[in-house]
Amino acid sequence: MIDLYTASTGNGRRATVALEECGLAYKVHKLDLAKGDGKKPEYLKINPAGAIPAIVDPDGPGGKPVTLAQSGAIVLYAAEKSGKLIPKDPAKRALAYQWFMQATTDVAPTSSSIFYVSSHVPVKDAGNTAYFEQRLLTQLGVVDKQLEGQDYIAGECSIADIALYPVVAARKALIDAAPGLANVKAWAARMAARPAVAKAFANNG
Ligand SMILES: N[C@@H](CCC(=O)N[C@@H](CS)C(=O)NCC(=O)O)C(=O)O
């Protein structure tokens, strides 16, 4: 049984969706980040960065325990352990890697920037928030083109979809209000309807 340390955020949900989609047994430990749970000494032993998500798998590679942070690394770990979500076809697999990176290193940081500039920076400016919102919509416009004529980003449900969906779900209001992005909106509804995704969101909160 994998211990999952998470909270109600896109990064937390990304890890939970991955474990659920891969059919791996896990136990949810919810952290209250606002109350400082992430900075408690017992949690810093699991992730010295004090951030969620993190997992502890007592049955890691070679039967040895493994402790892992970073939501993208958890998605890849769950996919490799289960043999799911990484396309067998080399061309689809290469695409899955490309779009996994787009989700984790382009889209997710932009979404995080919206969060930080609107609530955490010392000097708040609505123009900065609008800048990052537009940047997010532009990045999703690229995904929209990739989704043309297919249900999933790399042709089958893969690490790319799992990495992106929690970010899109967190920005649903912004995306729904934006013109266009018809393929992304239909894909988001498709992802939300997947039983494992719905269960993961319910488990994660
Ligand atoms: N790149 C990391 C980001 C992790 C992260 O920033 N987690 C946030 C919640 S979404 C957190 O725990 N923040 C609390 C903190 O860093 O103090 C990942 O994908 O897991």
Would you write up a description of this structure?
- The protein is an alpha+beta fold.
- It folds into two domains: 90 residues, Glutaredoxin, CATH 3.40.30.10; 105 residues, Glutathione S-transferase Yfyf (Class Pi), Chain A, domain 2, CATH 1.20.1050.
- 58% of the residues lie in helices and 9% in strands.
- β1, α1 and β2 form a beta-alpha-beta unit.
- The radius of gyration is 17 Å and the shape is globular.
- The model has no long low-confidence stretch (mean pLDDT 97).
Number of helices: 9
Bound ions, cofactors and other small molecules, one mention each? glutathione
State the separation between the terminal residues, measured CA to CA: 20 Å
Could you give a short account of the major beta sheet? 4 strands, mixed
Fraction of residues in helices? 55-70%
Poorly predicted segments: none
Count of structural domains? 2
CATH class of the largest domain: Mainly Alpha
SS content category? alpha+beta
The percent range for strand residues is 5-15%
Main-sheet strand order equals 2-1-3-4
The overall strand count is: 4
What's the overall average pLDDT, rounded?
97
